[in-house]
Amino acid sequence: xxxxxxxxxxxxxxxxxxxxxxxxxxxxxxxxxxxxxxxxxxxxxxxxxxxxxxxxxxxxxxxxxxxxxxxxxxxxxxxxxxxxxxxxxxxxxxxxxxxxxxxxxxxxxxxxxxxxxxxxxxxxxxxxxxxxxxxxxxxxxxxxxxxxxxxxxxxxxxxxxxxxxxxxxxxxxxxxxxxxxx
Length: 182
What we know:
Blueprint: E1 2-6, H1 11-14, E2 22-31, H2 34-45, E3 58-60, H3 88-93, E4 98-101, H4 107-115, E5 119-122, H5 128-132, E6 135-142, E7 151-165, H6 172-178
Parallel strand pairs: 1-2, 2-3, 3-4, 4-5
Antiparallel strand pairs: 2-7, 5-7, 6-7
């Protein structure tokens, strides 16, 4: 089923997703990868605030390339999500509602998704140039010294993703694979 949603994403929204649904996101999405997530943990350990409001937020695990003239960003494809697995449960417990990446997640992340009625979306790997066309604005939020790993705030319109792990823990990677096992 195709669904069009706007951020922020709440539990009322995530409860209606099912693994395999196609979703088009509009609104604010934050970009953060490994190095930024490591800094998030350091900030939280010191009792400080994260660089953006985490409640009901969407974090896209993305490696952007430099913007071409007249564009807010270059290629914007997903990064392997498992690299953030050691950080994701803590952020989900703080209220983050959605993650966008590619690849499988650990059971600890899936448990945190269920516990917090969150969702894990996949973006199509290798389609970064096409995905960038859905990004209308890109702004540095924090950690500019990290280069491509800096935290960005994106404004997206009809950004296409697929529900991989829904709020009940259904995992598209497992269910889809079972269809082909004889």
